[in-house]
């Protein structure tokens, strides 16, 4: 007999702290029955993403995220396979992706009418059997890095620019390091929180890597960026970003991709800067605009084609930290929010 399980949000995590495993509950649930216009799916992979921490708060701090409901199944980005279909557009065996995939082993999607936009078929000619590329390089991390750099970084190969990337050992950061070099940035400096991540980022082609947990960050930035910083790909916010902005040149640019250091707080997004840092933005004419990759959906297809071209040529690498088992999702999510992952944090719920 097939059993089904899910993860629900049992209580909201405390502000100013990481979530705890007690905030989640792993429980058995029935396998839903199919009706016309519905499909039954088995979850293969779940993506662990920082934005989900905001959804666990009663107030997400944004106008584009709605809070999760207590005692209901959590959803996020995921991949799965169709097990049964009552809709002519989907067949058993189809591989699907969704930004609203439930943290549940077996689930039902209503794909009738406009609900069909909730799920997309994965182009397996693009991914082959490596379906998790849709959560990594061809998913939000790769797209945020590629589109963010193309739209906000203003890279000029002739200008000999220096770019700093925070959380450079994470999903989007590791992509940003590689893409910025491919786009012609002269010097790229990664900022990480462990020696293992620093080695990983150096292997990706970064010109220098800073472990912010060792030594004086301000001094290391001066050494790594002797001509200042022209572009900052910001994944973290907080004290690290304040330090980088202090080293930015006139007419430079902040690509505001994420603020993971602030997601465990009750600040709005993007969080306000200190008066001193805000004054620097003004006096040095530094651009720092909110960037939301979902505002550029019309660019996704062309962006994926370019990323795939680089990938097939061996010019861009992907790394994943994979945790196995639905019951391990809370542990994996907390680990990702703590920075324990290298590259993209994924949970394998079922083998393809």
What is the string of helix and strand elements? EEEHEEEEHHEHEHEHEHEHEHEHE
Specify the biggest β-sheet: 7 strands, mixed
> Structural class of the secondary structure composition?
alpha/beta
Uncertain runs are none
Helix fraction, binned, reads 25-40%
Q: Give the N-to-C terminal Cα separation.
A: 20 Å
Mean pLDDT: 93
Count of runs of 4 or more consecutive helical residues = 10
Radius of gyration, taken over Cα atoms and rounded to an integer in Å:
21 Å
Give the overall shape, derived from the CA principal axes.
globular
Into which percentage range does the β-strand content fall? 25-35%
Q: Work out the number of β strands.
A: 15
Descriptive keywords:
about 350 residues; alpha/beta; seven-stranded mixed β-sheet; six-stranded parallel β-sheet; 10 helices; about 25% helix
Describe this structure in words.
With 352 residues, the protein is of the alpha/beta class. 26% of the residues lie in helices and 26% in strands. The protein has ten helices and 15 strands. The protein has helices at 51-55, 124-127, 140-153, 171-182, 195-203, 217-224, 238-245, 275-283, 300-312, 329-337, and strands at 5-9, 24-28, 38-47, 75-85, 95-102, 106-110, 120-121, 162-166, 187-192, 208-211, 229-234, 248-256, 287-290, 320-324, 344-348. Strands 3, 4, 5, 6, 7, 14 and 15 form a seven-stranded mixed sheet that branches. Strands 10-9-8-11-12-13 form a six-stranded parallel sheet, with helices on both faces. It has a two-stranded antiparallel sheet with strand order 1-2. Strand 11 (229-234), helix 7 (238-245) and strand 12 form a beta-alpha-beta unit. Helix 3 (140-153) crosses helix 4. It is globular.
């Amino acid at each position: 007999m097939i059993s089904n399980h899910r993860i629900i949000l049992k209580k909201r995590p405390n502000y100013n702290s990481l979530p705890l495993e007690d905030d989640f509950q792993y429980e058995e649930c029935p396998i839903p029955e199919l009706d016309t216009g519905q499909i039954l799916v088995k979850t293969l992979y779940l993506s662990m993403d920082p934005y989900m921490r905001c959804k666990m708060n009663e107030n997400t701090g944004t106008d584009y995220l709605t809070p999760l409901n207590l005692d209901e199944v959590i959803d996020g980005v995921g991949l799965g396979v169709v097990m049964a279909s009552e809709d002519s557009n989907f067949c058993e065996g189809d591989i699907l992706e969704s930004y609203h995939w439930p943290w549940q082993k077996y689930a039902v999607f209503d794909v009738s009418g406009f609900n069909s936009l909730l799920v997309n078929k994965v182009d397996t000619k693009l991914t082959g059997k490596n379906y998790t590329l849709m959560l990594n390089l061809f998913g939000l991390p790769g797209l945020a890095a590629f589109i963010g750099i193309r739209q906000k970084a203003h890279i000029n190969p002739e200008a000999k620019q220096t770019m700093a990337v925070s959380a450079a050992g994470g999903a989007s950061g590791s992509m940003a390091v590689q893409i910025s070099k491919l786009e012609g940035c002269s010097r790229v400096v990664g900022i990480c929180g462990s020696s293992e991540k620093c080695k990983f980022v150096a292997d990706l082609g970064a010109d220098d890597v800073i472990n912010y947990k060792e030594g004086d960050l301000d001094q290391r930035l001066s050494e790594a960026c002797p001509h200042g910083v022209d572009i900052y790909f910001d994944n973290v916010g907080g004290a690290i970003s304040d330090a980088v902005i202090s080293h930015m040149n006139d007419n430079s640019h902040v690509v505001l991709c994420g603020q993971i250091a602030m997601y465990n707080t009750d600040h709005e997004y993007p969080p306000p800067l200190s008066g001193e840092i805000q004054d620097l933005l003004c006096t040095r004419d530094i651009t720092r605009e909110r960037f939301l990759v979902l505002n550029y959906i019309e660019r996704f297809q062309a962006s994926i084609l370019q990323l795939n071209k680089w990938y097939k040529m061996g010019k861009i690498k992907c790394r994943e930290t994979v945790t196995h088992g639905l019951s391990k999702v809370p542990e994996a999510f907390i680990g990702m929010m703590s920075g324990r992952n290298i590259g993209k944090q994924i949970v394998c719920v079922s083998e393809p």
